[in-house]
Write a structure and sequence with these properties.
- There is one protein chain.
- The protein is mostly beta strands and 112 residues long.
- The protein contains no helices and 11 strands.
- It holds the Pfam family YjdM.
- This is Alkylphosphonate utilization protein.
């Protein structure tokens, strides 16, 4: 039985030492033995009303949005299907009918 701690990422018990690091052969995560076990934070995306969002949700715009580099405006009430959540300032990646691929801020949408 190994006295090495399990992997903090996937909890595999098959970790091994590689120099000063510990390595998990299942997920390839590397960590220091001295490092305190960190709690990985999972970001929770929320719409303008505080409802949690997930990949694949349908949302509705709550504000007219100007399209940068164009004279077009995406009107309030436009429904967007199958969103993808991404990191960054514009945290929703989607495709809007008639406009094409767009990135939106979650503060301007509500869950449909």
């Amino acid at each position: 039985m190994s006295s090495l701690p399990p992997c903090p990422k996937c909890h595999s018990e098959y970790s091994y030492e590689d120099g000063a690091l510990l390595v998990c052969p299942e997920c390839a995560h590397e960590w220091s033995r001295d490092a305190a076990p960190a709690q990985e934070e999972q970001r929770v995306w929320k719409d303008a009303h505080g409802n949690p969002l997930q990949d694949g949700d349908s949302v509705t715009l709550i504000k007219d949005l100007k399209v940068k580099g164009s004279s077009s405006v995406i009107k309030v009430g436009t429904k967007v299907k199958n969103i993808r959540l991404i990191e960054g300032d514009h945290d929703i990646d989607c495709r809007i009918e008639g406009f094409g691929p767009m990135q939106l801020k979650s503060e301007f949408i509500k869950k449909a």
